[in-house]
């Protein structure tokens, strides 16, 4: 069974005065890895991740050290069928961007710029704040709990202080209620009045005289 390093996309914003505008976007590409097969350990200067995909027969492993410290307690995570997305709050309020994501200056192949989210440093104030709307709309789970996360596959209960109550809104994937609702709409039976109208139309057509040839 193969173990691979997943692709990591990143982008960032910075602010010297507003902590909520001073963060790093991180997307770990791990398709078909269910939440119960995830292990994530987020610390102020590092992130360790492991995930297993039964369908792809593949285990993903990632261990990185950040360029600078992050505020773990004010960082968020969002899991989808294709990836794990994180919004990491930078610890130090600073106008300048981080020069890179990793502490080590050596270039690595698996870390790439997320051009869908990247904004140049001098243009970031002109961009809307909701360019990652799923983080803004991730409400708490019913009762404040995590539902069936089950400790996320043996993470030992140490989530590094990350706010997993904001993991709501993970639906919408294959087999979700949304798809079931759409299927039901497609198969809606005709209304009673419509059926009668169709029946009358068939009778009228049968009784109509055929034109002489």
Automatic annotation (TrEMBL):
Q: Where is this region: Disordered?
A: 163-213
Q: Which PROSITE patterns match?
A: CS (PS51203)
Give the source's domain of life in one word: Eukaryota
Q: Molecular function (GO) terms listed?
A: Hsp90 protein binding; protein-folding chaperone binding
Q: Where is the CS domain?
A: 3-102
For biological process, the GO terms are: chaperone-mediated protein complex assembly; protein folding
**GO CC, one annotated term:** nucleus
Q: Where is the composition biased (Basic and acidic residues)?
A: 196-213
**Bias kind Acidic residues: ranges:** 176-195
Task: Read off the CDD domains from this record.
Answer: p23_hB-ind1_like
Member of which family? Belongs to the p23/wos2 family.
Please identify the protein, giving its name as recorded: CS domain-containing protein
Source organism? Xylaria flabelliformis
């Amino acid at each position: 069974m193969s173990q691979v390093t997943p692709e990591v996309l990143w982008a960032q914003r910075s602010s010297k005065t507003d902590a909520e505008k001073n963060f790093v976007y991180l997307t770990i590409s791990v398709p078909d890895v269910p939440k119960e097969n995830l292990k994530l350990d987020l610390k102020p200067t590092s992130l360790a991740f492991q995930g297993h995909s039964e369908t792809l027969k593949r285990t993903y492993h990632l261990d990185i050290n950040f360029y600078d410290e992050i505020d773990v307690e004010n960082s968020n995570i969002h899991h989808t069928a294709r990836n794990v997305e994180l919004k990491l709050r930078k610890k130090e309020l600073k106008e300048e961007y981080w020069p890179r994501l990793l502490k080590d200056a050596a270039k690595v192949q698996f870390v790439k710029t997320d051009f869908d989210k990247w904004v140049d440093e001098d243009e970031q104030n002109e961009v809307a704040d909701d360019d990652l709307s799923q983080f803004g709309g991730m409400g708490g789970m019913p009762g404040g709990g995590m539902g069936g996360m089950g400790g996320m596959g043996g993470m030992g209960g140490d989530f590094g202080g990350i706010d997993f109550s904001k993991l709501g809104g993970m639906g919408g994937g294959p087999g979700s209620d949304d798809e079931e609702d759409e299927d039901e709409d497609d198969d809606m039976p005709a209304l009673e009045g419509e059926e009668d109208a169709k029946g009358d139309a068939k009778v009228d057509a049968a009784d109509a005289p055929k034109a002489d040839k």
